[in-house]
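Lab channel / #folding
Pinned by the channel admin:
"Please post every new chain as: sequence first, then the structure tokens as a reply. Keep commentary short and put observations after the output so the thread stays searchable."

First post following the new format, from NK:
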Amino acid sequence: MSDSNEITMVDKIDTTLSEMSANNEKINVSQVAKRLGISNSAIYKFYPEKISDIQTAQKRQKNKAESVTLGTENVKLNKEIESLKASTKEYQELAKDYKTQNESLWEHIQQVYNMYDEMLAERNGFAERLKHSH
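Reply from TO:
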């Protein structure tokens, strides 16, 4: 093959890699060869220097996909964290309300016991008076 054909095919391989990457198409030697209308072995035999470019593009594509997945996971986790923070705040408010209610109930219970003690003292006073009145 002449140098001009090799350069042309090398340029075609580079262009194909760029297009496939931009279109998020699966990148590997087989797919590049198919897109160019040549065999896999032609790339290996005549353009071995392009194998590493294809592999690099393939790795970039994989890393990009993983990055997108991780970004999506981060967004989900951040939403969950915000939801948990909101829930925690709600539960803290609820706990505060229950504490206030408990304090109020405890005051009422103490008032009832005080009333009971007063009634008991009154009853004992009546019982003493009744003893002495007969």
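NK: The CA atoms of residues 66 and 120 lie 78 Å apart.
TO: also worth noting, The chain is about 90% helix and 0% strand.
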